[in-house]
Amino acid sequence: MLYLFSIIFFAGFSSYGQEEKKIRYESERTLKDEENYPGAFILSKVNEQVHFIHQGIEVWCDQAIHYAEENFFKAYGNVRMEQGDTITMTSQYAEYNGDTQFAFASGNVFMRNPQTSLQTDTLFFDRTKQQAYYRSGGIIRDTASVLKSQIGRYYLKDEKYTFASEVVITNPDYVLKSTQLDFYSDNGHAYMYGPSTITSDESTIYCERGFYDTRGDTGYFVKNSRIDYENRILEGDSLYFNRNTNFASATNNIKVTDTINESVIRGHYAEVFREKDSVFITKRAVAVSVQEQDSIYIHADTLMVTGKPEDRIIRGFYGVRLFKSNMSGKSDSIHVRERTGLTQMLGRPVMWSENNQLTGDTIHLLNNVETEELDSLKVYDNAFMIQRDSIGGFNQLKGLQMYGKFEDNSLQQVDLVKNTETLYYMRNDDGELIGINKTLSSSISVFFENEEISMVDYLNNVDGILYPESELPEEERTLKGFNWRGDERLYSVEDLFIDDPDYEPVSIEGIPTPEEEENFFNNETRDGPLLNEKSRLQEKDLQERPVDTVPNASRAAQPDPLLRQEELDSLPAVDSIQPAPGRQPRQAQQQDSISPAAAIQIKRD
Length: 605
Known about the structure:
- Helices cover 0% and strands 52% of the residues.
């Protein structure tokens, strides 16, 4: 049976003092229904909403059921909850246990802090821990991005969201997906702890541990990290990325793959400038280009790769070394243009091809860009060719310039022009030494067979002497400018680094794994149960559900079963509630009531 509970309208709140731990309230209409709601007050809005306050939290709503003795209330209709000036939450329904400071909200829940907002279907709020939790799908809006996940946890003190299942961050410039992520709402920093991708029109970043500033658009990635560009892949132990400048750098065990030209650069520090389509790499840097399944390796202190894919240019500086299965070389610097197939070796260059050593002021190698085989070579100024003879001497050819021709990557012919000289150990068909030939001429053509000199043609102004071996002293057996560098020759890929000091990898500051968190509903530190017995929730509702562990944020958020339409019954129609004795009716009486159709419905407790 319904009866009016007469009170004088609160000009202020109920006495404080002993009520400090009790929930205080203000209501324009108050009803008691002992038959259906024993021990409870039914509170209703007339002009001003029902207002609750408890230890720094305030709640407004259109209607409420307040169990004063149990320090618990349920709020219905246009619910608004505020904690200081940091948290505001609105919903269709909310309940609050003053003894445990545990709140639950459902129905179009919207929570806002100074930097972000959260929209979800149901939300749990533990004021003791200062944590909020949702598991029915949530959307978080930041100043720069939108985050979506099935499950999320918010730490008010740290202003941090934690997502233990897949989360998707959508920004106008990229989409970030991660299986585990922490997001700080005060600065927009995101920490990724599982397989994660950041995808944009220009690049795709993958890592299994990393950091990204969603507002500053910079990132740092430290586990199984890579950045895929349109025509390059950058990998390394540590990657830095700046979307604003289209810049990336990498440290330790770096690999830069050119996916179009099938080449790879390795080293221990690299910088990539996407807009300039360039790469800078150092610290045991080596470029590897596959040609007819025979890789060419170029090592230098510093390597730079520039240009569009159809016109790549490789530059190497300081201590350049080149290696191929049948050829190797050294120089101070190198310039390779892939479109023309031209390789320029500059600064004390030396090249070994089969048994031949070639030196000069500059050496040019030309590849056939279609077959990717060596086509020809040119040696400019002070060209010198040396081939060790079987008895220990050296066959020598020199001139101002040298031109060579390759077939099947093997040197077949060499032409020397201008002021040429030769010193050649001549043998008969049985390989017996006939003598040592020293000749001057205007030009020379040398032919090779089975990697040995098979014939020498002297052209124009020939002046030569064949000396018996015994008649030519040792000191006369080298031409002016002779410089045998055979001890520098490279015989394997490992020899590229033979003179380099051991490299000590840079110490990388990692991103520590997050601490294992206790269950949000853990109640071991409290004396009593988390929930009031009048709560819409039951203890089983607080247990982890199978859906909570499914990392699938891409699906549409499903309504939480705790928002039960079938449980709704009606409160007493508030337009039947009269003002308390001693109060004068308002002139706009039609505004003093809420129609039964608009009354918030609940299930009888």
